[in-house]
Amino acid sequence: MRSWLEHKFRVTARLPLTALVSLLLFAACGGGGGGGGGPTTPPPPTPQILFTSAAPNSMNSVSLVSGAGTDANNLMLEVRAQTVQGLYGVSFDLVVPSLLRYVGRTQGAFLSAGGVQTSFQVIENPPGTLVIGFTRLGTASGVDGSGLLMTLQFSASTAGVGTLQLINGVGFDSTGQRLTSLSFVAGSVQVIR
User: Fold this and answer.
1) How confident is the model at residue 37 (pLDDT cuts 50, 70, 90)?
2) Burial class of residue 87 in the structure, from the number of CB atoms within 10 Å of its CB (0-12 exposed, 13-18 middle, 19+ buried)
3) Which phi and psi (to 5°) does residue 165 adopt?
C-alpha cells in the first residue's frame, strides 16, 4: 500500500512543476503569435501618377484633366473645352515640371466638329515647355459646348510633386477676335514611387 501512496504523491508533486515549466515556455515564446512585438514596417506606397486640376469643371475655360489610360508610369493629360461659345482656335504654352517627360499627342474631336479641317501643332521649345496651337480652318464658325481638344502624353521620370502651368493662353473666334472671357486652368501632379 505504501508504494501506491508514494507513487500518487510523486505524480501530484510533479504536476505543479510541469505546469510551471509550461507557463515559462509560453512566456518565452512571446505569448504566442506576434513574434516579439517590435515595430512593423509600413508597406511601400503604390506607384502612381496623380493629377489635380486647379479648378475642375470651370465654365468657359480650357482645362487640364487626367485622362483615361493614366497609369503608374504615364500621365494622359486631357486638354478640354468647358462650356465655351464660338471657339475657333486656341494657343498656349504648357510649362511641365521636370518629373515628367513629354512623349506625344493626340488630337481630340471638338474643333473638328462637322468635319471641318484643323491644324494642330505641339513643339517643345525650350525643353519642359510645350508651345501648342490648335485651330479650325476655312470659313467655318466656332464651336459651342464642351469637349476634348487634345490629349498630351507624359512619362514619369522621377518621384515628386510639381505644378503644370498654362501661360500665354489665347482663344479666338472665327473672325480672329480674342475670346476675352475664356480662362485657362492648369493643375498639379504627384508621382509616387
Assistant:
1) low
2) buried
3) -120, 130
